[in-house]
Amino acid sequence: MEVLDFNAVPAKALRCSTRLKLREFLDPRQEILFKNGFARDYRGLADQMDFQYNEVRIFERYDSPTLKIIDAWTVLPHTTIGLLIQYLENMGRHDILQDLQLKFELDAKSYIQRRLQVQSQESPLQVDEISSCRSVSFDVRLEDSGIFTTEDACTGEISYDCERLEIVNRKQWRARNAVRESEISLPVSLVVILHTVTAF
């Protein structure tokens, strides 16, 4: 029998049915604390997930605070199903663990299977030939040095690659940035840099 490492499976792998079952167990408020001081409902879960009191109050405004807490927690880095199981154990919610053990296993297996499929279908990062691009040369004159440099830009099927480029001078870096003409009127912080030629 295969042993699953729940600590290696991210919490985002929890499927909707598992989250809904967690909601059924944790949404009803329980005023009696577990022996280690954690509430036995969504508030105990939020405490262990390091949500602040004000955040918990905001979660309580929704129909299901448990779902909101889990949704907010699963997008954080280093959250795993194993960590969720540990939190439920800390709350003394062995009833949840017993009822959802199979769901946790199914979610983890499904996630691992999807990851393996994606990895087997991924193309290599580097291929010997690139057939969807063509190379275009731009001559850029650097006024302060009087030297012409050539930069090869890779253009694809995007139509704006053919638009007229203008050179914006940034003297503090001694660099020229090519941007589309339509973006010149934007503030400098919003200008999209297509490529940079640096001279020293």
UniProtKB/TrEMBL annotation:
InterPro entries: DEATH-like_dom_sf, Death_dom. GO terms for biological process: signal transduction. It comes from the Eukaryota. SUPFAM superfamilies: DEATH domain (SSF47986). Residues 41-104 form the Death domain. It holds the Pfam family Death. This is Myeloid differentiation primary response protein MyD88.
